[in-house]
Every structure is written in C-alpha cells, then in structure tokens.
Amino acid sequence: MTVTEAPTTRQQNRIDTEARIVSAARSLLADGGEVTLRAVARELGLTAPALYRYAASHEELVRMIAIAIDGEVAGKIAAAAAAQPADDPAAQLIAACVEFRQWALGNRKEFALIFANVDVECIKEYDGSSGMVFSGLLVALWEAYRFPVPALADLEPGLAAILEVPDAPVDPAMKGDLAGLVWTLTQGWSRLYGTVTLEVFGHVDARLVEEGYLFRSMIADQAEPLGLKPELDRLQDLIGQLLVAG
Which is an annotated GO molecular function term of this record (predicted)? Predict the structure, then answer.
C-alpha cells in the first residue's frame, strides 16, 4: 500500500498561493477584466515579480487556470454521470454531455478560455481531465452495447498510426483491438464540442439554444453508431428532464 506523504509547509504554501492566483484570475475573467499577470498580481496585492515565481509568463498563467477549470468541469461531468443508474452507461454518457453543455452555457468566458483559446500553445500540454471522463464513459458504453469499433486496418494508414499513439489522455482500454474507439471518441467529441461552441457564442438562432433543439438533434445523430437507436426515445426523454432540471 502506497502512503502519500503530506506536503511540506513550503509546498503547502505554494499550493495555497496557486489556488489564490487561479481564484483571482477567474474573478477577473467573470467580471470581464483582462487576465494578465499584472492584473492578477494587483488583485492579490502582490508585485508582478512576486507573481512570476508561480507563473513566469501569461502562457503559464493560462495553463494554471486551464488545469483548475478542466478539473472542476471533469468533476461536474463525472458527478452527473454517477447520478444515473450504475447499470445504465447510456444514461451516464447522456448526462455527462448535458452537464458539459449546461456548464458551458453558464460559464461562457471560462469555456472560451479553455475550449476556444486560439493560443493553443498555452493549453495543449495539460492533461485533460474532462476528456478522460468522456473516454471512460465511452468504454463503459461499448462494454454494454458492443457497437462496431473502427478497425485500424480499415482506416487510412496515417490515421491508424495516430490512433495508436493519441496525443491526449484516453482510457487505458482504448488500445489494441479497441484503439479505434479513439476515433469514435474524437468524432463524437467534435460533434458535441462543435454544437456547444455554436450555442455558447450565439452563432445559431437563440431559440434553438433555449429549447435545446440543435443539441438534441446532435445526440440523435450519434445514436446509431453507438448502438443506441432502439433506446433513443427514452434517452431523449432523459435529455429533456436534465435540461429542465439544469
């Protein structure tokens, strides 16, 4: 059994200060302020050089914020999935997708910082906790429904090579015969992310967003490839319940 050592006083002080930095940056973001090193330092009553000990550049600051927010989002998604019956992975995945959408619509600026940041160098290296949650839910869904998984031999060689060594963290089961699940995950994520992004930034009729028409249509389109077409009616009912509750 591995025993985790408690952090030293110095380590704990750093953890606490980094938490304060993230909190200050998120407050600035929520208030519409510019999230810069100087602005965060001013918010905390620190000098800019003092802040540099924790975030030496704007890129490091954004990465720090990204890790914190993504971890929080992952927790919300996982909790939403866990609120559904343990023997119903379809409902768990649906609940996770709805929770991601609801969080994004309620936290547009944070969504933009993490999921729509054009300066991808800031965030591309952190381990996406939310992505791990979705990949785990997809594996659980496959174990229950055994929907077809793309065989690497049937894909373009270049694509197959990428799927064998994905650059983002995924569930450990997504290898070997199940490496094609990485492609299923990527395609599904692109549709979920694309739909939510359009909704968040108001690039579709607001009435479609208010009633969830576009979102529910996107989910329906995913039912057949994920083996869920026979259960679509009940899953659409679940989406409706979750949207009302949210």
Answer: DNA-binding transcription factor activity
Q: What is the pLDDT of residue 214?
A: 97
Count CA atoms within 13 Å of residue 132 on its CB side. 12
Using CA atoms, how far apart are residues 29 and 18, in angstroms rounded to an integer? 16
d(CA 168, CA 134): 12
DSSP label at 8?
Answer: P
At a CB cut-off of 8 Å and minimum separation 6, what does 72 contact?
none
| 232 within 8 A of 220, measured Cβ to Cβ | yes
Terminal CA-to-CA distance of the chain, rounded, Å? 41
| 227 within 8 A of 89, measured Cβ to Cβ | no
- Give CA torsion, residues 71, 74, 80, 86, to 10 deg: -120
Domain boundaries, the chain: 1-56, 68-245
Q: Rounded CA gap, 69 and 236, in Å? A: 29
Residues of the chain under the 70 pLDDT cut: 1-4, 117-127
What letter would DSSP give residue 217? H
* Burial label, 20 (beta-carbon count in 10 A; 0-12, 13-18, 19+): middle
Q: What torsion do the CA atoms of 32, 37, 42, 48 make, to the nearest 10 degrees?
A: -170
List the one residue out of 147, 146, 174 whose CA is nearest residue 162. Answer: 174
Closest by Cα among 187, 205, 188, 215 to 104: 215
Whether the predicted model's global pTM rises above the 0.85 cut: yes
Distance CA 204, CA 87 (A): 36
Both tokens assigned to 142:
């496959």
